[in-house]
Every structure is written in C-alpha cells, then in structure tokens.
# Entry
Amino acid sequence: MARPTLEKIKEFYKDYDNGWILGDLHYLLAKMLVEDPKVKKVFEFGCGNGKNLMLLKELKDGIIVGGMDISPSAIHRAKVRGLENSVMVGDETKLQFIPKYYYDTAFTVSVLDHLPLDITARVISELKDITMYQIILVEAETEKNEMYWAHDYTEWDFKKLPDNFTSAGDGVKYRFWIWRRNA
# Structure
C-alpha cells in the first residue's frame, strides 16, 4: 500500500481536533495510571485537546500532567480546558527540550501507529530520555489504511499486554504496550 509522506501526515493532523475515538481504552489507561502509586508526573505525546490529561487530573489528586501535540487548535482547546501551563504545540523534534527524567510516566494513544518506523524509533528514544519509570503505548495492531503502521514495539524492549481492543469507531485493533526502566 502506498504510504503518505511524513509531511502529509503532519499536515493532516495539524488541523485534527476530535474527541475520544477509542472509548473504554481511555478509561482503562487512566485506571492503570491512577492506581499506580509511582505515577505522579505524566506526559502525553499527542495529547490532542487534553481529554486524557484532564481525566487524570480529575481522578488523581496532585498529579502533574504535561502534553504535546502538533495541532495548534487542539492545544488551544486543551488550554481553554485548564491545561494552559501544561501543554504545548510540537512534534517529535521538540521532545529533546524536555528535561531528562522530568516525568515518571509517558504515554501515547494512537500516535506512533501513524508514524514511519524511523520517526517512531526517535520518539521512543526521546520518551525514554524524559521518563524515569515507564512508558505506556496504546497503538494499532492492524493497518486499516495507508495512515496506519502496525509496529512491533518489542524491538524497543516493550512488553505486549495480553488483551487487544477493537475500536467501535473505525474497527482498528489496538493493544497496550509497556516499557519500564530497569524492569
């Protein structure tokens, strides 16, 4: 299948600002993060309009959240929601400016599955640099169309969690992957 260029993908998502398309996956992710006592500072790469971060703030007292997205309109909505000092516009090239080990947890939800392998490798490397404890990925296992890349994250020492989930919205299968420092 013919793949769009990285520039075309970024151009598409710069104006992308939809809500949760993965239903219960967002709540399951939040539950994992809220119930883990080591999770106090969380970063979402591809945070969109901040819904995941706001849910975490509602569910866990004192949690510090941060996020980045390439969509200026999504970041604007996140700031209006109350995340004004927590989110920024940026792509994988901006991760290097976050201090090393600043967050204990980082996560993505259907972000890396839209990036080619070389960019995914760069993002994972940068996320490992800013994360003290763990990274959780919620990414597609199926390539529904040319906008999806199904990656094998074991290449970067991630463990595949046993269950997968199918999005009611688009029929794509998603899986949780987890990496822990010194695990």
The first strand starts at residue 41 and ends at 45.
